[in-house]
Amino acid sequence: MSVIDFFVNKMLELMKGLPLLILISDENGCILEMAGDEAIKSVVQQSGIKVGLVFNEHEAGTNSINLVLDHREPIQLVGDEHYYEFLGSSACYSVPFQYSDISNLLGTITIMTTIDQHNPFLLAMLCTVVDSIERELLLKKQNRRLHILNQVVIETTRNGIIITDRDGNITEFNKFAEILTGSRKQDVINRPIPDAKINDFIKEVLQTGKDYEDIEFMLCPLTGQGELVCLFDAFPIRDENMQVMGAFAQFRDITERYHTQKQINYLAYHDDLTGLPNRRFFTGHIDELLRHGVNENSIFAVMFLDLDSFKKINDTLGHNNGDALLKLVAGRLTACCNAPGQLVSRMGGDEFTILLQDITDRTEAIQVAEEIISAFEKPFAVDSYEFYITASIGIAFYPQDGTNVEMLMKNADIALYRMKDDGKNNYNVFKPNPNSGGIERLTLENSIRKALQLGEFVLYYQPQIDILTGKIIGTEALVRWNHPTLGLLPPAKFIPIAEETGLIVPLGEWVLRTACLQNQLWREKGFAPMSVSVNLSSRQFSKHDLVETIKEILLETRIDPQYLELEITESMTMNVDVAIEVLGKLKELGIHLCIDDFGTGYSNLYYLKLFSIDRLKIDRSFVRDIMTDSNDADIVATIIAMAHKMGIDAIAEGVETMDQLDFLRSQNCHEVQGFYYHQPLPAEEIEQLLARSSEVKTNLQR
């Protein structure tokens, strides 16, 4: 089991982020171990599948484990191919393993995942892993049976074997050692090992008696064949008095396995269609850059690029030709951005992102954008068709437009959609306040502190709706500034300034206190209890006295904690240990927790359970295009399905049309907010809505 666990953990680590559950059974179908995705494990355990269960066809019906045990060959069952209905939304891949020297069946290894993650590559990958396990099992078995000094099959093993005397001179050097190192036995016998790195290990073994196991390194044979990847073991040979009398070393060629693992890693971080880096790679690269690669004087640019009217071309020429076009676009973008420090990636659909590092000013990024726009002036040729397509580009700059991945990408996306609204086929540089100048910003910055003292801020509330009943089940508190000269200002006008100046902390506390007071007032007026959602800022979340502050507000406002929901962003949970501690203390108060704008960051689903999250809010950027962008539709459906499996509620924001509502209803998302129902409203108008709802209920009861 230790050998199997090693390779299973390696596979889970390489496939981190995918919902996979791995089951290991013995030759009788008895489940020995389950590892991987906790959500899937919980579901299958509820069905009765657990460690110790014996799968047999008489009791368990047709299943992949028994099929593999009966036929001794890899099997996959997907969706409706399963005997049990509850497995109809899953994909299962099973492979037998055995002692390969005597074909003695030992058991099976099975991968279970959701049906939307079905990929035949998983079965191929599992076969490769099982092959590696069988080789390791065979090696362990041989080493247990044969004492090194009496080993008579040294020339038949497929491992490279080297044995030295006490002085480190070679006494045995088998033919596979010759193949792997490129050295001939007659040239090295009775001499030190020619490879300096191997020789250093052997010296350490001889001098200290230390063992080495599974050391991975490259070998470059002198025969001219390609570089080999090997696992290297070395340990001392002792006499009857336990004195070191020599050293034993062996090499196992894992080149094929190594390249398979590299391919798995490549697929996890690259787009399958274009070969470009994907969203995971792009965001991870920027995050790494922000942590280690920039100083206080550095600037870089993030670009979002979207093809104009791609859907029409896709619908007209078909998806195959649409894919061919995307490959050509990827090639053209790569040609435009091939300088050091420039990175092109594909987000999905017809959306690409570009990172420009090491720029000295904004004009360099603008020049690249202009070059890309010019490159699209040339026609594209696909399947005997020649046509023109244009692109729109949004640009955000570090640090002016954001100091983290989430904000930079969000602002570049905002700039892109402003460009599309302005006519497409051009670039647009993000401007935080496109309709205001520097004087207005300075005025706002100087006025925020006074506005808190004078009570100029007001709260609006956007109703959250249960689409099954149409009832208001909660509200989200949203702050507005009733400025004495500029009028009612939306949060986009002043929240960034408040965050920069640190005034977001007292403003956030005022919002929390006011929202709790208002919610408690509605309850005291006799309206049905409902929750109020309040957004926490990053600065608030990082304050050491956050929990105590919230506890005081709860006592002061007399609100029942179960009717308060705090919304945090994914970026706030990047420090996992701190997030677990803070969120755990908040949960102890009885407060509900929600991840806001879910899907735009880098949440690991495993951590959602650790954070005790109650609800996920699906970002409006995905909801907006679910009827026109299949990728966004798939993302939304996946978030909802995974939330349900983990026992977490999902709410979609930004719902504006009946089609969007119908889609969400079809995916069993029952909670929404958006202009389709209500825009954010003052407290008195919310009260009128609640009063009308109560009147309707009373009339129906009569």
Automatic annotation (TrEMBL):
Residues 298-432 form the GGDEF domain. SMART domains: EAL, GGDEF, PAC, PAS. Residues 213-266 form the PAC domain. Residues 153-202 form the PAS domain. Residues 441-694 form the EAL domain. It comes from the Bacteria. InterPro entries: Biofilm_reg_signaling, EAL_dom, EAL_sf, GAF-like_dom_sf, GGDEF_dom, Nucleotide_cyclase, PAC, PAS. It holds the Pfam family PAS. This is EAL domain-containing protein.
